[in-house]
Amino acid sequence: AGIEGEKKDAFYLSAPENYHYLNQSGCVADKTINDAEAFKEVITAMEVMQFTTEEVRDVLRLLAGILHLGNIEFITAGGAQVSFKTALNRSAELLGLDSTQLTEALTQRSMILRG
């Protein structure tokens, strides 16, 4: 909501209501909160704490990747499969992961047996 322009495009971000993690309450906007100003305050706080430009970008990439992870849907017929590849591919790219390996990590069950 507070991020704009090139950064918004670079992280494949759109309106907050398009993200599963953000729209669970049914309220993605609050007229008493200025999202753009709050975002600037967070960025300023990171700069005060001497985050480099690259570190700020990495934090934003991580958060955007997590938002996109929340939009991945799974189909369980015949084993787990990812049904929404765009969200998976965007998550993988933003998190610096291989999309095939991410798919496997999210759909493969593993068990640790003692003994």
TrEMBL record:
GO terms for biological process: cytoskeleton-dependent intracellular transport; regulation of cell shape; regulation of filopodium assembly. Keywords: Actin-binding, Motor protein, Myosin. The keyword Cell division does not apply. The keyword Electron transport does not apply. It comes from the Eukaryota. InterPro entries: Actin_motor_Myosin, Myosin_head_motor_dom-like, P-loop_NTPase. GO terms for molecular function: actin filament binding; ATP binding; phosphatidylinositol-3,4,5-trisphosphate binding; plus-end directed microfilament motor activity. Pfam families: Myosin_head. Residues 1-115 form the Myosin motor domain. Coiled coil: none annotated. One of its GO terms (cellular component) is myosin complex. Belongs to the TRAFAC class myosin-kinesin ATPase superfamily. Myosin family. PANTHER family: AGAP003327-PA, UNCONVENTIONAL MYOSIN-X. This is Myosin motor domain-containing protein. It comes from Micrurus corallinus (Brazilian coral snake).
